[in-house]
Amino acid sequence: RVYLDYNASTPVDERVLECMIDVYRNHIGNADSRTHQFGEDTRSIVELARKQVADLLGVNADEVFFTSGATESNNIAIQGLREYAENSGKNHIVTTAIEHKAVLETLKQLEKEGFMVDFIDPDQFGRVKPEDVLNKVTERTLVVSVMHVNNETGMIQPVQEIGEELSKRGILFHVDATQSCGKLVEEIKNLKYNMLAFSAHKLQGPQGVGVLVLRKKSYKLPPVKAIMYGGQQERGIRPGTIPVALVAGCGKACELAVTEYQSNLEQANQIKEELINILRESGLSYHINGDQTYCVPGTLNVCIEGVSSEALMISSKQFCGISNGSACTSKSYSPSYVLSAMGIPVEQIESSVRISWGHGVDQDEVLNGFRALINVAKQMN
Ligand code: PMP
What CA–CA distances, in Å, run from 132 to 7, 64, 117, 289? Predict the structure, then answer.
């Protein structure tokens, strides 16, 4: 069996696992307990992890806040601005039509509450144009929220250009970096943003922990407030006992990404070339969704003409884990809203599959799994 759904979740790196087991075995205590050494020990583990995250992103450790994942981080970044919106009278938000549901649904809720939200469509290759986003910005704009890399197509969005311009205009900018963190390491360091979100499980860390970055180096700390009531953990931004082992695993995954991302990218690139060769030689009619010049190395979204992605996934379920990128939470099948926003016709969307891979994969295993998948597709064609 071969797992080709890294954009959904990655396997935990063995070294991350060891680090977490060590915490579970040897370090007890609440990281916010100040009355004994146990608490001080776990606190120092959390602070080491915070530093490891900060080093990967090129930010200060005190700009890093641990959460339960990117969904929560995105929610805090956006919903946490409610009070600021009320005080400033700013009620307009700009985003893209291809954001993850964690952002889209949060903004749709705010829209119901009276906020005006512009959802910018991408071009046919799945990239939004910076000017389309920037042209919507007015003095009433509260925040602009754009993902760095799209989870379905792997397309890198122009957050660099958008961030530069917004920082000049003093407009808050939130980046969902869930699919780029640990991959576009240098690019992220150079971005200008106020808030940034990601989940550890997309970069070989554990599920259930994520990060929200609130920048204050070149900007004031954004006026983000907690969206849950409770204790003062994470300086009040995210109340609740810190899951020390998960946080330590998140930090370790970030540390590994710093030293290993380059070789991971090289391997991921080679795999993509080989996958495209296999497609070329298969005799099937296909086309790749998105423009590969702007795509991360570990994602391939491909339409195999005449082959239903649903049927292909069902037939290959036993030996291959792929995805068609449609809302995994919805019970009834609905064609991908990301591919729809790119203007791709429904028949082509229904024949599109997403294959994603990353750190630690066995190249031969991936290629053999893909060959087997293509053989199934041929039989269905
Ligand atoms: N944003 C993006 C771009 C994602 O790909 C995901 C995970 N698929 C999320 C947010 C949400 O992450 P989580 O489910 O870990 O909260």
Answer: 27, 30, 14, 21
